[in-house]
């Protein structure tokens, strides 16, 4: 054992002992209590006394000094700072053998002094409940320690204790005192409190407990310190609330806003993301693997409470500190499943999540599109106007009139959905994001968009459904625009086809019908792929998983997976494909305008060369699209959805064969070979 710091000097000639600092005398752990015997007097050097008398005096004084009392021949010296190491003065004339044992025992007195001063200094309310609980544990330890010394005092009075025996009795306590001293040093240096203090104690138990006794001591102290923290944790996970007046818990809430503003923002999903935040430095190390579920458990209970439902359907259990992480894992998982399950039932039963999701599918994903033909008839002219020129109120009325004639008129949640015209084209935004510096993007920015390209649906998502849908609302809007443009082009081509086959100009019908049918089949193939090969399978898969879900989180993840997968396989995450696809749609639109031009219809017999150029351009663009599909298919590591798209568009190898013929012609003319989409197309037929 190392010796404690001391000063081998004779006692002062006289005067009262000056305490280095004052402590609160009512505390059990008070450091070096002043007693009548601590007043310094003139004493003869102790070395003049017989050795057995010296030992008896030192034994008596040691028993007092070890309990925080400065004595005659062993006395405390002033401290450099309130939490410095306590040093002692000692008569140099003391017998060497007796001095050896005194010096070996004084480190315990120094450590006791630091613990006592730490307890006294931490008695302020600002230290928090966790620190107070820890200090209570330290007081209990010192109380047991003093009881131990009291028993030794009784033995010394009857002559049954020697200084050597005292040394051997106290020696096993040294590791315990040193461990506490190390905890106190870190606590003071880093100003740890709350959850950080629990992390420190846990670390000391796991890494620095050298004996079973030390481990047990630190374990008991940690159990005591953890009680207020674990009480807050239990409250949070089972009641959605906690009382943390001193900011010690691992979760914090921002300052309360004005009540009316809070009530308004409560219905915003982002509000709940910011309403409660983890405080990383206050997360105890033994709870680190479970922080996300802990945070969400209380959040979900708060949401249920804000919806007007009771959440106190079970008593919050009393949690205790445990070195086994499985204990916390089981408790957290139980609370999380309960809270998430309760929120799921609220969404399904009280908030009618499933029929509202189906309403989203009807309007945003256009699986009930029987209202569109009437809407196109009513709003054909308005959809061609620049955004700044359209009467949005009139457009809304036209949309409502069209819905009233469709099967959607009986949908009880149709009031959630309203058409809107955005200030910018969401699909153009995808292009600009992918190539912000491109000249085409800059040109597109300067050109004002027409209503058709900015028309989409908006929805009034109320709390708590906003927690599921809000983050994906924009993706729904982009998907709607994507599908809506196809519907517009299909409608225009259908109108053109009808007028063509009913035309009295036989030359016009014979010349144009095949090309119109070719464009119409391309649009229908894309539509069938998006709806039949992408949206419907993913929707059916999501419905099955939602019905089997046990927690709100499963529903959230499945819905997110659904909308993300639809966006990816509808090419919305592939800007190059999307850009070329919309060039094809624009090409179909311009072809429609040309074929409807009276000059073309009246002189159809002489317009075959013009029609050949139109067909050539259309086929070239489709071939380019097929090549992009092939490249993207390879990059996505055999994404079979792309094979479905190719097979749907080029079901009879028409475009592939045309591309092969062009490639052979170019090779023969020496202009180089054009890459075809043989890999993609042949795979689709394998």
Automatic annotation (TrEMBL):
<feature type="domain" description="Gamma tubulin complex component C-terminal">
    <location>
        <begin position="353"/>
        <end position="655"/>
    </location>
</feature>
<dbReference type="InterPro" id="IPR007259">
    <property type="entry name" value="GCP"/>
</dbReference>
<dbReference type="GO" id="GO:0000922">
    <property type="term" value="C:spindle pole"/>
</dbReference>
<dbReference type="Pfam" id="PF04130">
    <property type="entry name" value="GCP_C_terminal"/>
</dbReference>
<protein>
    <recommendedName>
        <fullName>Gamma-tubulin complex component</fullName>
    </recommendedName>
</protein>
<keyword id="KW-0493">Microtubule</keyword>
<dbReference type="Pfam" id="PF17681">
    <property type="entry name" value="GCP_N_terminal"/>
</dbReference>
<dbReference type="GO" id="GO:0051321">
    <property type="term" value="P:meiotic cell cycle"/>
</dbReference>
<keyword id="KW-0963">Cytoplasm</keyword>
<feature type="compositionally biased region" description="Basic and acidic residues">
    <location>
        <begin position="660"/>
        <end position="669"/>
    </location>
</feature>
<dbReference type="GO" id="GO:0000278">
    <property type="term" value="P:mitotic cell cycle"/>
</dbReference>
<keyword id="KW-0206">Cytoskeleton</keyword>
<dbReference type="InterPro" id="IPR041470">
    <property type="entry name" value="GCP_N"/>
</dbReference>
<dbReference type="GO" id="GO:0051011">
    <property type="term" value="F:microtubule minus-end binding"/>
</dbReference>
<dbReference type="GO" id="GO:0043015">
    <property type="term" value="F:gamma-tubulin binding"/>
</dbReference>
<feature type="region of interest" description="Disordered">
    <location>
        <begin position="660"/>
        <end position="686"/>
    </location>
</feature>
<dbReference type="InterPro" id="IPR040457">
    <property type="entry name" value="GCP_C"/>
</dbReference>
<dbReference type="GO" id="GO:0005874">
    <property type="term" value="C:microtubule"/>
</dbReference>
<dbReference type="GO" id="GO:0031122">
    <property type="term" value="P:cytoplasmic microtubule organization"/>
</dbReference>
<dbReference type="InterPro" id="IPR042241">
    <property type="entry name" value="GCP_C_sf"/>
</dbReference>
<feature type="domain" description="Gamma tubulin complex component protein N-terminal">
    <location>
        <begin position="59"/>
        <end position="349"/>
    </location>
</feature>
<comment type="similarity">
    <text>Belongs to the TUBGCP family.</text>
</comment>
<dbReference type="GO" id="GO:0007020">
    <property type="term" value="P:microtubule nucleation"/>
</dbReference>
<dbReference type="GO" id="GO:0000930">
    <property type="term" value="C:gamma-tubulin complex"/>
</dbReference>
<dbReference type="GO" id="GO:0051225">
    <property type="term" value="P:spindle assembly"/>
</dbReference>
